[in-house]
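Anyone up for a design puzzle?
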């Protein structure tokens, strides 16, 4: 499946209201999509094993979205087959007092994946140019007054770009997914959470309060994505009204990007191979 149309090209100003939340790139078979997702998960398992053994690159997968867009479900269904030993999942919520006493990238830096591993961020450092901006929480971050000016968001975009470029140049491959859901579809999913006892726990009054800021969030996302989609850390805008398509296309992109790394098991030297042969001989001669 082609997904080039989902990438936000660097220095491109986007308008989320003009980007479809329900488009499926002409793909309409839910049954086939599930089969393809299953195949992609198998590929990811094989690629992850090689990535882990090679210990050369790490991969950081970032999910951002409005509430109910399907971040948790996408992570669960797409990453379900991966080896936990080589996978790290972090959910970033309201920062603690200790975290606020540091720069906003401090807690992110602590959670970065090691070489050979896949790190998954459910929300991320982008919350600091989204929710912090929408709710004017900058004063809560103990930011010096001289830096709290009209340029603070531009400054943060530049800081994030520099940070992500540093990560890329040190072997961390970054993929950023914005799950783009419509306001109507969000409403349907909220109502389903309210009506389904098994999903009641997923709903909170805060969801409704945040929904009132829909327009502000859309503007904040537009600028953040436009300013920080780079060749070394691209943003993908994924239509999220149809969960089966969201999960499929995310898996397609991850497999494609992992294959580009050409991960492989380390090649043994002649001496190492000779030691293996000797070890095999000793085991075969062991009659106990």
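Challenge accepted. My sequence:
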């Amino acid at each position: 499946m082609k997904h080039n149309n989902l990438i936000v090209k660097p220095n491109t100003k986007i308008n989320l209201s003009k980007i479809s939340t329900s488009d499926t790139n002409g793909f309409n078979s839910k049954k086939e999509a599930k089969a393809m997702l299953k195949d992609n998960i198998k590929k990811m398992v094989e690629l992850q094993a090689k990535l882990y053994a090679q210990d050369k690159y790490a991969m950081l997968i970032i999910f951002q979205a409005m509430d109910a867009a399907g971040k948790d479900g996408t992570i669960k269904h797409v990453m379900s087959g991966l080896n936990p030993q080589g996978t790290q999942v972090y959910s970033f919520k309201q920062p603690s007092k200790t975290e606020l006493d540091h720069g906003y990238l401090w807690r992110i830096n602590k959670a970065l994946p090691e070489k050979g591993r896949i790190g998954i961020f459910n929300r991320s450092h982008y919350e600091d140019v989204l929710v912090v901006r929408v709710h004017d929480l900058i004063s809560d971050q103990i930011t010096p007054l001289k830096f709290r000016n009209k340029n603070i968001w531009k400054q943060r975009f530049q800081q994030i770009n520099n940070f992500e470029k540093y990560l890329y140049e040190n072997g961390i491959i970054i993929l950023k997914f914005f799950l783009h859901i419509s306001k109507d579809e969000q409403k349907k999913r909220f109502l389903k959470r309210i009506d389904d006892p098994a999903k009641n726990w997923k709903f909170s009054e805060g969801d409704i309060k945040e929904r009132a800021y829909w327009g502000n969030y859309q503007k904040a996302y537009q600028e953040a994505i436009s300013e920080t989609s780079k060749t070394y850390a691209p943003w993908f805008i994924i239509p999220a009204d149809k969960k089966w398509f969201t999960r499929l296309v995310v898996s397609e992109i991850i497999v494609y990007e992992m294959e580009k790394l050409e991960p492989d098991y380390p090649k043994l030297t002649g001496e190492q191979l000779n030691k293996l042969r000797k070890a095999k001989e000793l085991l075969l001669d062991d009659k106990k």
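A detail worth pointing out: The chain has a mean pLDDT of 93.
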